[in-house]
Write a structure and sequence with these properties.
single chain; disordered N terminus
Amino acid sequence: MLEETPPKLWDLYEAMIHDSSNKLNVGQIQCRNSILLLLVGTQAPITWKEISSALSLRGDSEEVIFELCGQLVTWAGDLLHFSHPTYASKARIAQLLRGNFNEPVLTTGIFPTREAMSYEYAARHWGYHLSKVVSPEPELLSIANEFLHSFQSVHWGEFAYRLARGNQNTASNLSIVQADYGYLHEWFAKLSEESKSQIGIDDFFIDPYERISKLWATPPEDDKVLPWMPLIRLGGYCWEMALVDQGIKFRREARNGCIETLGPRHPLTLRSRKDMCQVFMIEGRYLDALDEYNAVVDAQRDVLGPDNPAVYETLSHRGITEFLVTRFNGAIQSETEASKGLLRSEEPESTLYIVSQWILTWPLSYTGDYQKALEICQDLFRRRREKHGRGDPYALMFTMVMGELFRKLDRMEESIQRLEEGFDVQRQALTGSISQNMGLLDPAINLVLSYRESGQNDKAWKLIGEIEGPEDELPDNFYDRQCQITHVKGLLLSDEGKVNAAISLLQGFFVKINRDQYNRAVLWLLLDLAAMLRARGEEGDEDQALINFQNILRKIDEANSSPIEVIGDELGLEDDLTSEGEPDLPGLLHDAEHALTLVRNLKFAEAEMFLVEKQVEWYRQKDFWIIYGSVPADTTTMKPPSLEVVDEFIPISYPKRAKKCSLR
């Protein structure tokens, strides 16, 4: 590549002009020359709008300049100037993209060795060094702004992706980009208002990728593959940065574009279809996602071959979905196959393999195979900690999983040790309150459970106070975690002999929610609440315990006996879930409580047999599903409440919904 490069910079520009002229007609060449003359002749920076006005360009003048000048010019916001040809070269960027997306590339080397060493350091550390400049000069701000909004930024993004992918100590292939995002925003916040006006960071990473995608999609480029690679990258970036709406937009655009131009079975299309499944999950379309994962896996086996790592990556994603819809055996099979397959093509320390093993521990834990899940965690934790030290993100991840598993195995000292270690590290790494950050909230709830089950109620109450804060509740978007916290508070009160207070809390919480708000945590809360009501034994308590199980089961309609699995928004709402309807008969209420108890005790086969025997079905299967996102603390298996009543009975006037059916 270097041997073909002209020896002088002007010769290089001349070669670029000559090569691109072959794709333009006479009028386009004359217009392009006028643009370049303006850039040469101006004494101050010039914007594309000024060029458009000076030359009376028609149509979308920004796109016209793109099409005519291509890699000869670089954009810095609205400003236009000649490119430094090296890292803004579309050919070099395309080479990197194709390599990162496993598409055929023309050459194997990206840089000569000496250049690679210099550029690698800059790619890893430019954000850090920039953040140390307290009062940047206007020239530095201009250079930084130019870099952030030019195609050089795309080149850096792909190079950084490749560096991170080869680093076994990173939790994401975009870790370098994420780190520089943090440095950049921290630095920007400290700048003066005048300095802030000279550099734009709101569209960091997104703007140049979006523009190069559009450029490659329009004549004279009109490439069939390249336009979709930047959009796929943007979809992944936005997803990891919690820019969900933009992530959905880019992933939908990439998937639709790939299908239209490349067909549904092209390797890049299959990747974009796999990514789109996460959009389905956000939209609550779990079963649609599962169907699409199945289709993509089958197509990848045919197109890429059965041992291609992409097959096993998709299998691992499918396993997550199976877990969330409580098809635990299917999830175990998917993750086991994915782990074995990845181990044939990846190193044992590879990100894909480690994540697949981590996911495998979820369904193992939820089906009661705690020891096997623990052995997986202990093995990977040991290897990661020995090789990468205490700061390794994967070692931290396995530390917290082990903490929950130790609790389920009643090894409370080890559980608390692991959970406190993981929680302390998270608190140092993450900003904001516990209630605002899922990365803090779930470890905190797990720690509360272990404190309670080890008899350290004071510590449990103290941490709950930190979780809920002065508002004494969590944000609405953490509703399922609020259900868990309320349940545990009721258990703590009951353990202290305050059964009346516990009943008041739990029953009062339950009657305020609608049927469409039921979830796993609510179902387990009902079982413990029923035990408390019966232990108290006041007038009406037995009736109340049963009435709470209204609309958990229903008789199978002989004309339509297929169970309902709702596909819709995140909660899978149905119009009939909020209607009063006819009250359930006492026998159905007893059956609902018994069936829930079997499921909570992990006797899944017995529960299914019981439903068949009674000719009933779950009112809504989705009540048992696990909300997509961070895996919550598991309140399925907890120490049952202490039922010794020592506090004073306080009668409660419940809202009408809780007393709508009489058992007398």
